[in-house]
Write a structure and sequence with these properties.
The complex is a heterodimer. By secondary structure, chain A is mostly helical. Chain A has 14 helices and no strands. The model of chain B has no long low-confidence stretch (mean pLDDT 89). The chains are: A mainly alpha, B mainly alpha.
Chain lengths: 358, 303
């Protein structure tokens, strides 16, 4: 148990060491950079609040990824699902002016969840009914979503003056208000916390969650237990997509209020790092998302004072994922059980080996 | 007009095909490498940096090969030796390469946004062939990388389908346990495929900076690695099919630029989405794994 807590920290420490090497190659001071990152993320009340705001989409996409990965469904498409959710929210948002606030919020969030569910559901359906590897389909759907967003903000949803490639702002009624202005803290994070708890209960306290985890450990064995793999695959991918899409809707409703190109800076990919640091545990997603949200938030200050460009955050993300995977390798014996909670016969049929066979 | 469009289609198809041929080798050996985008990006950046500071295109190309091989070596260590999940590793490798090239680009070339141009790789017109109307300029007036890529198509087809080495490669992708029992050395063969693929993917990246853009911008590969991934699927794991799919997608990209310039009613995003949408349609239509190596994506561990 202790080691299951210590391991992510050991991985992060190794990542920090490797990042220090990269920083030395850049001629920057590692101490100075880490200090600037910390200062930028937590240096003031406002910085802390903004770290929370920047972590919010990562909680949604992190939950989406952890749920799918728990079933050994490799959803690389949270970014596309979030984007389609945002498009749905951004399309319906301007027309909600005549609704009461609570209803308008409910509609815009539901639209986002539905959009994401459709996008995730397509990949789930392709996997369940056509035996199409969800890795490939979700990657392809990401790119289609990016082009769809580019098209709508240049075409059907472009704001009326047609001067800027953005959509019209959503109605005030559909905007989540800020609780502690000027900070931008809003209902989104509270919703994210509630969903994390709900996902935890779903995964570990319900029959469906048990079936999902069983499918993740060994698809073939799960079939013998009578678990209907195709239906479960479809529903999990749709639910995963809905979570990511909800994250997109929250971003539109609370923060950006309109659609624009390249809305997501890669929240769906960063979510993979978040989910792995959290060891796919929905409750662990919260601190993991705040960690990466803090990096995103601190990177601006780091650029200003240390002259290191914010892309360093991606270096950190990539290294953290690779190191966690290396720590977790089945080749090193029972270690991997600590992260993915596999049984002792995991070495014989590791769930991570289940990816390609239906 | 037609000549310019077709020439542009071949030019756009080249880096995609080069990377796709590398990915084909890797997939035949039973590994799926999503990190191909990262290897391409690393090749693109290193090629430009070396060519810019040394003034030598050849050194730039060599650097691109080294960069692609280095990225694939990280991937191979995790995926082949440690039997880690290939999809997640590949994604991480892509994110890492995106970050590293971004950070070092800003460091080397400042944040002024000034473009750092290099001379394009010289074209080699193939004598009288290049003077054939239409076909000449479209097919026989390119730089060496283009010829190399298209010569690789029959070469790889022959190696994979008709040589002992190709048989071993495919054995690793179809039945790794059986291949291992025959003493074929699954780990060594998968490493070899990934090294060759790293070199080809690095060159594909170098094509983007040294032959096409003549400079580097962040994320210059812009999803071409993933297009290469779809080329392998749409081309049904056959090098001739890969060439056809690459030229089709290259034409879609070339058409997209033309349409954007003309400002037609057809949204150019449709053409940008085409490779991805077509891949989905092909996969949905043919059903998933029919033509794919059966052990594709499965880590292999000796029991």
């Amino acid at each position: 148990m202790l080691s299951s807590i210590a391991k992510p920290f050991a991985a992060l420490a190794l990542a920090a060491a490797l990042i220090s090497i990269v920083l030395a190659a850049l001629g920057a001071s590692p101490i100075g950079v880490f200090a600037a990152l910390g200062e930028g993320a937590f240096g003031s009340w406002y910085a802390c609040a903004d770290t929370i705001v920047k972590s919010t989409p990562l909680v949604f996409t992190g939950l989406a990824v952890s749920l799918a990965f728990s079933g050994a469904l490799w959803n690389i498409g949270a970014d596309g699902q979030l984007t389609i959710g945002a498009i749905a929210a951004g399309a319906i948002g301007p027309h909600l002016g005549n609704f009461p606030h609570a209803i308008a919020i409910a509609i815009i969030l539901a639209a986002g969840a539905l959009g994401g569910a459709v996008w995730g559901g397509v990949a789930g359906w392709l996997r369940a009914r056509r035996d199409v590897n969800e890795v490939i389909s979700t990657i392809m759907l990401n790119f289609v979503a990016v082009q769809a967003l580019s098209w709508v903000v240049h075409g059907p949803l472009m704001e009326p003056s047609r001067a800027y490639p953005t959509s019209s702002p959503i109605a005030r009624a559909a905007q989540l208000e800020f609780y502690f202005a000027p900070s931008r803290i809003n209902l989104g994070m509270i919703l994210a916390l509630a969903l994390a708890a709900a996902c935890y209960l779903l995964l570990f306290r319900t029959g469906a969650g048990f079936e999902l985890r069983a499918m993740g450990r060994n698809r073939r064995a799960a079939t013998f237990f009578g678990i209907r793999i195709p239906a479960l695959t479809l529903w999990v991918m749709a639910l995963s997509g809905a979570l990511a899409g909800l994250g997109g809707a929250v971003q539109i409703s609370a923060i950006s209020h309109r659609l624009y190109e390249k809305l997501s800076p890669g929240w769906g990919f960063e979510a993979i790092a978040v989910a792995l640091v959290a060891r796919l545990n929905p409750l662990g997603i919260i601190p993991a998302a705040i960690l990466f949200g803090a990096l995103d938030n601190g990177s601006q200050a780091m650029q200003r004072t240390q002259g290191v460009s914010p892309e360093l955050v991606q270096v950190i993300q990539g290294l953290v994922i690779l190191i966690i995977l290396a720590f977790d390798t089945p080749a090193w014996g029972g270690l991997r059980e600590n992260i993915f909670g596999a049984p002792h016969d995991a070495a014989a049929v590791p769930p991570l080996a289940e990816m390609p066979d239906a | 007009m037609l000549e310019a469009f077709l020439t542009s289609a071949i030019t756009m198809a080249t880096p995609i095909l080069l990377a796709a041929l590398g990915e084909l080798l890797v997939e035949e050996s039973g590994v799926i490498n999503i990190g191909i985008e990262g290897a391409m990006l690393a090749g693109a950046f290193v090629a430009l940096a070396i060519a810019y500071f040394s003034g030598s295109t050849a050194l730039g190309l060599a650097g691109a090969i080294a960069a692609g091989v280095a990225i694939n070596a990280i991937f191979a260590t995790l995926v082949v030796n440690l039997a880690v999940n290939q999809v997640v590793t590949g994604t991480a490798v892509s994110i890492l390469a995106l970050g590293l090239t971004g950070v070092f680009y800003r460091k080397l070339f400042g944040v002024t946004g000034k473009a750092f141009m290099v001379a394009p790789i010289a074209k080699i017109p193939l004598g009288p062939l290049a003077r054939i109307p239409l076909l000449g300029p479209v097919l026989f007036d390119h730089n060496g990388l283009v010829y190399f890529t298209f010569i690789l198509v029959p070469t790889l087809w022959y190696v994979i389908a008709h040589t002992r080495y190709g048989l071993r490669l495919r054995a690793c992708g179809e039945r790794p346990e059986a291949a291992d029992a025959l003493g074929l050395g699954v780990i060594a063969i998968r490493w070899q495929a990934l090294i060759v693929s790293g070199a080809l993917t690095g060159l594909a990246g170098a094509f983007l900076t040294l032959a096409y853009a003549n400079t580097f911008v962040e994320n210059i590969s812009a999803g071409r690695g993933f297009v290469a991934l779809s080329v392998v699927i749409v081309g049904r794991w056959n090098s001739w099919g890969l060439a056809a799919a690459s030229v089709l997608f290259g034409a879609a990209m070339a058409l997209q630029f033309g349409l954007q310039a003309l400002g037609t009613v057809v949204p150019y995003q449709l053409f940008l989405a085409l490779p991805y949408a077509l891949t989905l349609v092909v996969l949905a239509g043919f059903g998933g794994q029919a033509a794919a190596p059966s052990a594709l994506g499965e880590p292999y561990r000796r029991q």
